[in-house]
């Protein structure tokens, strides 16, 4: 008899969990309106998209920050289109949550706001987020502001959130180690004639030292004009920055992410007692369902018809609304 009762309780728990997922992932079909939103900067306009659900009262707004490289507001780059961040904004809108996502300075429609490579610093991206925060906090339509950073955008948003008025912070596929440490690990698969001089250069950059004579074979990675940016980027340790944050934190990581690991997320989570860690089985770096196999995983990076992992949306809605 006890065995039967135990089985029934297990079934009931599974059904309840399934119902909870449905509650948070099935859209409430809020009507939304997409409009252009612009941040004026000293070097030009940074352009974005505001997804605004039609509501009679104040609603939360999420500032979505894209990852590294030429990634635009939708999560795409010139050679790959997956629409991951666009889908994320639409999913939030369907649940009555506004969002702003934008092209970083120098990217896509914000290209005219670019700084020269030798003048660009990691802090420029942080200052842009701080300006977005100030702008959105002045909008009386919003009840609260949440930062959601993806990949490198997680670190940018994390630092900007420390001194600004936001209610919650979300890290999605955010690295747990400084960028210099990550580059060293990635370069270990290279032959010694590439690895050894690379490690020597990285060690100097981590100390804030410029390297004048870069070997020709490493010039594209360590050219003098990009070194100031690398120095400014390397000095931030995500674990140390996470420890400074005094507000509700959600850290989300997928198990089939071939760019950022679950260990990264665990390091971030242990850095702050206010952090919740959520691991999503089968979610890769672009927030889609994927196998761990590298070739199959990368195929999803150029498949805009592939939906987001449902668990991701459920976790975000729960964290934002509760």
Descriptive notes:
This protein has 322 residues and is α/β, with parallel strands linked by helices. Helix content is 40%, strand content 18%. It has an 8-stranded mixed sheet, sandwiched between helices. Helix 1 (2-25) crosses helix 12 (310-321) and helix 5 (179-187) runs antiparallel to helix 6 (192-206). It is globular and about 60 Å long. Residues 1-26 have low confidence and may be disordered.
| Helicity level | 40-55%
- How do the strands line up in the largest sheet? 1-2-4-3-5-6-7-8
Largest sheet: 8 strands, mixed
Tell me, briefly, the overall form. Answer: globular
Mean pLDDT metric: 91
E-strand count = 8
Low-confidence stretches: 1-26
What is the gist of this entry?
By secondary structure, the protein is an alpha/beta fold. It has twelve helices and eight strands.
Any key phrases for this structure?
globular, 8-stranded mixed β-sheet, 12 helices, single chain, 322 residues, disordered N terminus, alpha/beta
Question: What is the strand and helix layout of this fold?
Answer:
Elements: H1 2-25, E1 32-41, E2 44-53, E3 59-65, H2 84-94, E4 98-102, H3 122-137, E5 142-150, H4 152-161, E6 168-172, H5 179-187, H6 192-206, H7 219-222, H8 227-234, H9 238-243, E7 249-254, H10 262-269, E8 275-280, H11 294-299, H12 310-321
Helix pairs in contact: 1-12, 3-4, 5-6
């Amino acid at each position: 008899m006890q065995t039967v009762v135990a089985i029934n309780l297990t079934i009931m728990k599974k059904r309840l969990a399934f119902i909870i997922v449905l509650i948070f992932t099935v859209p409430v079909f809020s009507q939304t309106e997409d409009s252009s939103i612009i941040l004026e900067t000293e070097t030009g306009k940074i352009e974005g998209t505001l997804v605004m659900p039609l509501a009679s009262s104040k609603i939360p707004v999420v500032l979505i920050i894209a990852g590294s490289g030429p990634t635009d507001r939708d999560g795409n780059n010139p050679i790959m289109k997956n629409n991951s961040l666009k889908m994320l904004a639409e999913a939030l809108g369907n649940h009555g949550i506004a969002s702003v996502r934008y092209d970083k300075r120098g990217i896509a429609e914000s290209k005219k706001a670019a700084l020269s490579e030798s003048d660009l610093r990691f802090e420029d991206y942080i200052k842009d987020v701080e300006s977005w925060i100030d702008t959105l906090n002045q909008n009386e339509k919003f009840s609260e502001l949440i930062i959601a950073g993806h990949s490198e955008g997680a670190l940018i948003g994390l630092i900007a959130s420390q001194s600004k008025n936001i209610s919650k912070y979300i890290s999605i596929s955010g690295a747990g180690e400084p960028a210099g440490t990550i580059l060293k690990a990635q370069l270990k698969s290279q032959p010694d004639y590439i690895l050894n001089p690379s490690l020597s250069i990285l060690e100097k950059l981590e100390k804030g030292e410029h390297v004048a004579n870069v070997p020709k074979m490493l010039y594209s990675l360590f050219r003098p004009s990009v070194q100031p940016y690398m120095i400014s980027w390397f000095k931030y340790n995500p674990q140390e920055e996470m420890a400074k944050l005094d507000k509700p934190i959600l850290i989300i990581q997928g198990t089939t992410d071939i760019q950022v690991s679950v260990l990264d997320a665990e390091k971030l989570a242990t850095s702050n007692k206010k952090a919740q860690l959520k691991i999503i089985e089968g979610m890769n770096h672009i927030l889609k369902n994927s196998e761990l196999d590298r070739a199959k995983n990368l195929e999803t990076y150029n498949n805009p018809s592939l939906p987001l992992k449902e668990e991701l949306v459920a976790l975000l809605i729960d964290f934002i609304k509760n």
